[in-house]
Amino acid sequence: MILKPLGFWQSGGEDPLFLQTYPGATVAHSVRQLSNSYTGNCIKMRRSSDGVEFDIGFVNGYIDTASIVTNAAGGYSTVTTWYDQSGNGNNAVQATDNIQPLITDVNGAIINAPNKAALNFQTAANQGGILGYPTPIVYGNDSSFFLSTSVAREGTSYVFGGSGGGSRPAYLSQYAGNFEWYDNVDRFVIKASGGSITDVQQVSVCLQMNGNVTAFYEGAQAFSNASGTTTNTRNLDTIGGSGPSSDQYEGQMSEFIIYTTIDKNSDQAAMAADQVAYF
User: Fold this and answer.
1) pLDDT tens track for 216-251
2) 24-61 confidence digits (pLDDT tens)
3) What is the pLDDT of residue 244?
4) Three-state SS annotation for the chain
5) Taking the model in full, what pTM does it have?
């Protein structure tokens, strides 16, 4: 069931949602509805007891948790597809059941992190989960990333990553208690040392190659550093690891939005505040 969100009706209609206020995203996954024009589902869930799958939509702009609990039938359920709300069809998928992120726990209860539903990338098999893009997402010199995720340190795990011959993949990591944007070819594009990001929930990064990299944690600017000097594009292949089966993430995630060719630095503070207010 998909219901339109309840907006605050004014002379111009419903209040705009996130992607209407900040358009141009290439990838947009969330447990909230991000645009009034989006009429698709939020996730496809798989009931672990029998493998039956169900599309789950939105009710009043939020993932239909009642349907999830009903379909889970008192046990684990996983996410096989996190649908893209950008309109570009960049759905994140996983066919292998033992590395699918969880959406309900062993008792069939919704996983929250901390206040809203979240995909748990620490799976029922106690390993990291991964969602992948059948066609890699290519991002360029000016890119912006907005995540609502728990980024407590998990060893050498990566929140997202890329791979592939000829690509220049970058990884967002919480390795060694630092925020690191690591590039296989050019080494560190940025590294914010001296401050752990353990238990940070909202992270946004605006990346200007040959310019600055500005990061916000929990709606407040954490740093603005000079970026690396490379001008090459990069591939994004996975959410939840540096590649299809490596350095797997074990945190929770509620929202993942990427602008691959747009530097959102001028809107970053407002966008980060929006995420903090919602989640």
Assistant:
1) 777 888 777 666 555 567 778 888 876 666 667 777
2) 999 999 999 999 999 999 999 999 999 999 999 999 99
3) 67
4) CCCCCCCCCECCECCCCHHHHCCCCCEEEECECCCCCCCCCCEEEEECCCCCEEEECEECCEECHHHHHHHHCCCCEEEEEECCCCCCCCCEECCCHHHCCEEECCCCCECECCCCECEECECCCCCECCEEEEEEEEECCEEEEEEEECCCCCCCCEEEECCCCCCCCEEEECHHHCEEEEECCCEEEEEECCCCCCCCCEEEEEEECCCEEEEEECCEEEEEEECCCCCCCEEEEEECCCECCECCCCCEEEEEEEECCCCCHHHHHHHHHHHHHHC
5) 0.86
d(CA 208, CA 141): 6
| pLDDT greater than 90 at residue 133 | yes
Residue 144 CA from chain centroid, whole number: 12
* Residue in this structure with the two tokens 């007891």, named with its chain if needed: 49
d(CA 8, CA 17): 11
Facing residues of 202 across strands? 148
Residue 9: partners with Cβ closer than 8 Å, 6 or more residues away: none
d(CA 33, CA 58): 7
The residue with tokens 């001008």 is 231
How many beta carbons lie within 10 A of that of residue 261, not counting itself? 14
Q: What is the mean pLDDT of residues 77-89?
A: 97
d(CA 152, CA 250) in angstroms, rounded, equals 9
Q: How wide is the angle at C-alpha 44 spanned by C-alphas 41 and 47, nearest 5°?
A: 145
Which range has the worst mean pLDDT, 16-20, 175-179, 206-210?
Answer: 175-179
Kindly tell me if the per-residue pLDDT of 81 is higher than 90: yes
